[in-house]
TrEMBL record:
The modification N6-(pyridoxal phosphate)lysine is found at K210. Its EC number is 2.6.1.9. InterPro entries: Aminotrans_II_pyridoxalP_BS, Aminotransferase_I/II_large, HisP_aminotrans, HistidinolP_aminotransfase, PyrdxlP-dep_Trfase, PyrdxlP-dep_Trfase_major, PyrdxlP-dep_Trfase_small. One of its GO terms (biological process) is L-histidine biosynthetic process. It comes from Paenibacillus dendritiformis C454. NCBIfam families: hisC (TIGR01141). Homodimer. This is Histidinol-phosphate aminotransferase. GO terms for molecular function: histidinol-phosphate transaminase activity; pyridoxal phosphate binding.
Length: 354
């Protein structure tokens, strides 16, 4: 705490990202990155952008990338917003759509950045408990609120809600914005993008960090009716007009255009996930059903924290959350087949020793 900090800075409770350790080479299954590289077209596009004029500011409207996203997702350009990662879009959305007073609602076990943003903007929030099997209880999101945020699939559980189930919630919350955070939607779920025309209060946020292997580049997208997108533009242009640099704009457009590569990497991740689940279940672990590029698992004999530490010792990093309800679970990102074989072997070995 410093006397120079503003009152706002004093009350912040910042997000703690997963480790990116430098001490040795780990099998990194802790931050839900894609194990495959981005499309080769991305690298070619970035190279071209580097050779172009970096003296000049990038396009503040991200027009070409918005057009590429609009084409890929069958929307109009004015229904697309681009941000520096979906985290930035979430941060802008909390400012753009939620007014202090009634609480913002999100699940109790969910992406921990939501409460950080609520805190940043002085917004009260209320968490809605998942049921015993970790399902998001859509009927518990009451309309006395400032707005709703739900990731689908949820993180860190990986549980998915079929997209048409959101209709009653969207109708009941017609006066508020409902944000569906689809960071992991490409690993087996169906996007709520098809609902946008029916619901002016729906904002769908996606990212290129996961299914397009571009966590290092920081590009996110939001889709909604035009006035929601305009709201986001107003907030963005009150912070920083140039949130994406020229390389990211060019690389992201190329990623969206390489559909075959995208489909193939998603298929590979899904196949490896299913294999991993089967192996873990054979070892007696229970695994929450996942449609994401990670799984939440619990071991029948070894407490999660201990297993986390033993795996780390063996050079395998996963994520442990010291948090009620999930403190006996580990979240394990899906790596390559070889990485997951090593992970399963390590769990087997640790189980045999302890
Ligand atoms: C549910 C969820 N939303 C959003 C993000 C942020 O993704 P990015 O800022 O890389 O687009 C993450 C990242 O892990 C996430 O798990």
């Amino acid at each position: 705490m410093s006397k120079y900090w503003s009152d706002l800075t004093k009350r912040l409770v910042p997000y703690v990202p997963g480790e990116q350790p430098k001490d040795k080479t780990y099998i990194k299954l802790n931050t839900n990155e894609n194990p495959y590289p981005p499309s080769p077209r991305v690298l070619a596009a970035i190279q071209q952008a580097v050779q172009a004029d970096l003296r000049l500011y990038p396009d503040p409207a991200c027009q070409e990338l918005r057009q590429a996203a609009a084409r890929r997702f069958g929307r109009s350009e004015r229904q697309v917003f681009i941000g520096n990662g979906s985290d930035e879009i979430l941060a802008f959305s909390f400012a753009a759509f939620f007014t202090p007073g009634a609480p913002v609602l999100f699940p109790d076990v969910t992406y921990s950045f939501y409460k950080v943003y609520a805190n940043l903007y002085g917004l009260p929030y209320e968490t809605i408990a998942l049921d015993e099997e970790f399902h998001v209880r859509l009927d518990a999101f009451h309309p006395e609120c400032a707005g709703v945020v739900i990731p689908n699939p949820n993180a860190p559980t990986g549980k998915y809600v079929p997209v048409d189930s959101f209709r009653p919630l969207l109708e009941e919350h017609a006066e508020h914005v409902v944000i569906l955070d689809e960071a992991y939607i490409d690993f087996g779920g169906e996007s709520a993008l098809k609902l946008i025309d029916d619901y002016p209060n729906l904002l769908v946020i996606q990212t290129l960090s996961k299914s397009r292997s571009l966590a290092g580049m920081r590009v996110g997208m939001a889709f909604g009716q035009e006035d929601l997108i305009e709201g986001l533009e107003r907030v963005k242009n009150s912070f920083n007009s140039y949130t994406l640099d020229r390389m990211a704009l060019a690389g992201a457009a190329a990623a969206l255009e390489d559909e075959d590569y995208f489909q193939e990497t998603c298929r590979n991740v899904i196949r490896t996930r299913e294999w991993t689940v089967k192996q873990l279940e054979e070892l007696g672990c229970s695994v929450i059903e996942s449609k994401a590029n990670f799984v939440m698992m619990t071991h029948p004999a070894i407490p999660a924290k201990r297993l986390f530490e033993e795996l780390r010792e063996q050079g395998i990093l996963v994520r442990y959350f010291a948090q009620p309800r999930i403190d006996n679970y580990l979240r394990v990102s899906i790596g390559t087949d070889e990485e997951m074989k090593q992970f399963v072997d390590a769990v087997r070995k640790i189980g045999g020793i302890i």
